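Worked example

This section walks through a single chain of length 678. The input is the sequence exactly as stored; nothing has been trimmed or padded.
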Amino acid sequence: MRSDTMLRMRKRGGWLRAIWRYTPAVAPLLIVLVAFGVRFHELGTQSLWNDEGNSLRLAQRDVADLVDAAGNDIHPPGYYLLLKAWTGLAGESEFSLRALSALEGVLAVAVTLALGRWLFSRAAGVVAGLLVALSPFAVYYSQETRMYTQLGLLSVVGMALFVAWLRRVQAPKDEKLPPTMLFALGLALCNAAGLYTHYSYPFTMLAQGVLFVGWAAWVWQRERIPGSSLPTPLRQALVSFATLNVVTLLVFLPWLPTAWDQVTEWPTTGEDLALGTQLRTVFTWTIYGSTTDAQGWLNFLWPGLLIGVALWPEQKTRRLPHGWRVGLPLAWAGIVTGALFISGAYREANLKFLLPVQIALALLIGHGVVRLWQIPSTETLRRVPLLKPLEQRYIRYLLAGVCPFLVVIGQLNALHNLYNDDTYSRSDYRAMAAEIMSDPQPGDAVILDAPNQVEVFSYYFTGETPVYELPPGLGGDDEATRRLTEDVIAAHTRIYALFWGEEERDPNRVVKATLDSSTYPVSERWVGDVRFAQYAVRADTPLIPVDARFGDHIRLTGYALTTESAAPGEVFGVLLRWETDAPLTQDYKVSVQLHAPDGFNVWQHDSAPVNNLQPTSTWTPGEPVLDRHGMFVPLGRVPGEYRIVVAVYADSRLLVTVDGSAQVQRAVDLAPFTILAP
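Given that input, the structure is written out below as tokens.
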């Protein structure tokens, strides 16, 4: 009986040992599969957004035209050329367009696995690869038809080739490794491809240069002979490194003048935030993801502990010293992040330039996990008083398991947000185009304000409604923009407007101001970062005097209806004339409502005066403010007499007195309105 039990235990132990033995070989494959799954999950679900449409339209040009157009962009043509070749094979659906970035993201995970192994250990590479595979920051841009994942891929490939080249440079001659020149050429071409992909790639090359100088200093100190010249291996390495960088520059030379003009002439768009706030956001995005909930400083304790352990001095020697190996991801992350701060380009929209930083931090965390688990407490981590060596060991085991687990849990929560929280959804041009095409009417028009919307809008919009891009060109002429907007208003009766990127080409909001002052705003909502609005063009009618006082100082002195009756599905306008007899410090909103005979509110339009362009705190005493509100008669309403009601509110509605009456109410009943039979 006892022997049978022992035999079963040995067999179980054999299975466990087998699992443990083959885990290092299987784990990288599993991680690559996970990376593939999370990047291709719901890849084509969301609409393309502005910049993705721009990528598509550039890729649709012939090569010469594409390169010429890229010269007017802020990005070099490398990604667009690759996307052109890709769409020729895969097509132009949302899924196909994004699949290129998704595959590049998977490849970046695979290279991270290899780089972690070369720098530290196979286990460190596995942990780093897992963190990159699950990173919502990396996944988000792996699901976008832009060049940022390609930037991350080429950066990590460049670092991997750099490490492989250095390993070969200092390897014994009898060690069977591929020729040094093969790695040098690969690194030169990879760096050239990086330069043609994004203008932040030179900072990865700068990190390579700093690391090479550090390595050369270490070799010189270790191998130099007093009174002698440079050691032969070091001299050869210097020549090889200089040569490969010359090759890189020669390949990039045709584009260098254009790159210089684009980088030096592009306007500064950084945000002036406290350094602590900037660093907190950078750490949040690169460790937990760009779609994570707000992270307190305590949540950086776990990854910070692991990075600290990774940086702890190591006693055992390797061909590349421990300080240099941990210095690689540290210098890489520090130089790329520092460049963003020093250049004044810090803003959330530019944090995607830090995708290489996310990989570098994952490498440090992976190395920290393995060191915490494997290194004996008597070697590097000094013995802690009052704790026995065995107790220290189990504490380290606990920390090595719990700390990365907490990081992964944070990443998984952020991944859930990425897939399910509309807050992080891209602007839904598909839905906006479908809404406009669902009810086409004579006299419709679409205004796209300001840059780069027509590319993505035209991908979805196939209707015959005229589409106007305002301001034309690069903008800058407000008077011309105003005239063009007025021409659109004069020629149409209903206008849809998509506002995006106004601060770049329409910073004075001329298009919106013209629409708000000359038409009746019917509806407005945010679709991602696009403000989607509908305006009705109606002829004004004479104002009807009224004396309604809201609160102590706001007076409604007149109103007008563009019509006194309308059928369901039609739009009419309400024009209000406001005044104040004293400066106001509070911003109030105006609510215009259509009430049924039983008092039920069937439609309302709420906004600060003049569709948010003239808040009450900006009013000048005695100066009238004309405030327009578009009202939609909902379908299915029973014909009859309805009422137009107006209220003013901030936290609560202001009390109203009409014609000096002693009666106080919360809204004013303006006028009857008739809903006709359809």
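What to look for: The radius of gyration is 32 Å.
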